[in-house]
Amino acid sequence: MRIPDVALTIALIGVVVAAPSAHAQPPATPANTPDKVTGPEQSSLVVGALQIASSADLDIDGMDISITNDSVVYSYLLKNEGTTELSLTASVSMPELQASADGSQTWVLASNNPENPVGLTITAAGEPIAPQAQVHAYALGLDRTAEITAEHLPLMPFGPETDTALAALSPDTISRLAALGIVSPRDPDQPKAPLSADWTLDNVLSWRQTLPPGKTVPILIKFAPVKAAYRLVKDDLDDLKDDACLQPQVLGALQSRLKSGGVWTVADMTLSVGGPAHWVDNPAPTLSVQKPQSDAIIAFCGMDDKTASRATVLGVAPDNANEIRVVIFSPIRK
Questions:
Q1: Helix, strand, or coil (residue 278)
Q2: Degrees (nearest 5) of the Cα angle 47, 48, 52?
Q3: What is the pLDDT of residues 89-122, one digit of tens each?
Q4: What secondary structure does DSSP assign to 65-129, as a single string?
């Protein structure tokens, strides 16, 4: 498989790292006008919800997700109903990262840091938390972190630094790593083609959360969403109709605008809405989505239609949903 250089661009949210594509691409389309035709599709990944250890005294008082085009905040209200302090392990899973096998996808990340590629921050009662990262690289289902770092390869499976390090490997090293499933060997017909990383990066952030007796502690987890971005075409509406619960009036408005030659960009993200405690009843998460501009259109399952025209659209995640798809349609002004 032929994988060319990867673009590394400075953006407002930090370093934008795009996964390799199967063919060389022209300069990237500006972020506010992505083009599905000229390059690989910008795809979304899911940052895990808060998970916390069990205790009979722990209660989940509330869950909320606040969303903008470039930022997501998971908010949780954790209450210790007991008379003694609780100290519980808590964790958040980073998105699983792997180079695109056929070059059809890219992922825009806030950072090329393998421990925190989405710029995630955590606060408890307003105080910052410094979680411990558990980072592992897997190939063929086996932990190959030691083998990858021994060859001075970055743990990120894509990006300019990884491309440079792979290009510097000797033929013997390439053969040995290919036998372990860590890299794909070069095609004999293309001996100068760049190598492809075949490992998957897996990372969990964890910390010890203290909860005082009889008090409610707000936990805020903020990150830059790994979202899909593309121009809207008619076929997209058919795909989104059920997944994002497009209401008839929204569907009609978008179809009418497309027919009249209007152009819309789409920010499409999938968010985790699972509760932090599997052993008690969790409240349904509430959602608030801020429009990037006044004429933008928001769609997600559980949306309160009465707020559809407001600057911030509200809703409640459907019962028993583990993930929810939030779509932001923005017209391009001529």
A1: coil
A2: 150
A3: 999 999 999 988 777 778 899 999 999 999 999 9
A4: EEE-SS-EEEEEEEEE-SSS-EEEEEEEEPPPB---SSS-EE--BS---TT-TT--EEEETTEEE
Place of tokens 């989405």: 118
AA letter at 255: Q
Q: How many other C-beta atoms can be found within 10 angstroms of the C-beta atom of residue 90?
A: 22
Query: Among all chains, which residue has been given the structure tokens 């990944």?
Result: 45
**Amino acid of residue 72:** V
DSSP string, 199-229: -EEEEEEEEEEEE-TT-EEEEEEEE--B-EE
Q: Is 231 helix (H, G, I), strand (E, B) or coil?
A: strand
Domain extents in the chain? 8-331
Read off the pLDDT band of 180 (50, 70, 90).
very high
Q: Are 48 and 94 in contact (CB under 8 A)?
A: yes
- The CB density around residue 39, as the number of other CB atoms within 10 Å, is 21
Token pair recorded at residue 119: 């710029």
- Give pLDDT tens digits for 208-221: 999 999 999 999 99
- Strand bridging mode 264-272 / 58-67: unpaired
Long-range contacts of 184-192 (CB under 8 A, 24+ apart): 184/1, 187/1, 187/2, 190/2
CA separation for the pair 222, 30 (Å, rounded): 25
270 HSE (CA, 13 A, CB side): 12
Strands 51-52 and 264-272: unpaired
At 254, the amino acid letter reads L
How far is residue 196's CA from residue 59's CA, in Å, rounded to a whole number?
Answer: 47
Tokens of 191: 């001996």
Contact 72, 46 (CB under 8 A): no
Spatial contact of 38 and 230, defined as CB atoms under 8 Å apart: no
